[in-house]
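[#protein-structures] MJ: dropping phosphoglycolate phosphatase here for a structure pass
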Amino acid sequence: MKTSILFDLDGTLIDSTVPIYRAFKFAFASLNHKIPQDEQIKALIGHPLSFMFSSLGAPKDEIDEFIKIYKECYAKHYLDETILLDGCASALKSASSFADLAVVTTKTSKYSRILLEHLGVLKYFKAVIGADDVSRLKPDPEPIFTALKAINKPSTNAFMIGDTALDALAAKAASVRALGVRCGFGKDLQDYFECVFNNAQDAISWIKENEAKS
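AK: finished. structure tokens for phosphoglycolate phosphatase:
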């Protein structure tokens, strides 16, 4: 059976910290609240926006307004300020030659598809699953199951490549093998992932080598 590889987006395939930082700071400034530091925001990337804003001190009754302002600012800048991580384009091309690929992200699939098309790599993915496609986000396994269903594949012979514990926990709950990458935002990756690599291309190479042996 052909291998399936699911990918997180931020910190795994792309670097979108610039527009993320910009949008968070703009939201806090617009609503006259203390602006968080980059490192505070970075430590929360991968979580849902509501959790991030709450953790950064946004009042509970204003969270929806914070998110609205964030999304408006992010939408204006994310295409110009997001980059594909080094080596990912060629790695995805290679991966698509022996596996079915999908994205599983806490971003919306709408923005993710536009971004991946802009970066020239959408063509490699058979599905893009985002926050607007599920009712529960990572670490719940629902996004993983939704992606596998979209590409019509079982959890057997499937891998999830990500950079935070959220990716690993979701994958394990879906009986999918979890591979971590150090190029993103997670810490103590070895505590959560089966194997940890420097980047997505190294993880893809490992999968390809193991497939050749099996």
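MJ: nice. The chain has two domains: 4-15+82-212, 17-76.
AK: one more thing. The domain at 17-76 is CATH 1.10.150.240 (DNA polymerase; domain 1).
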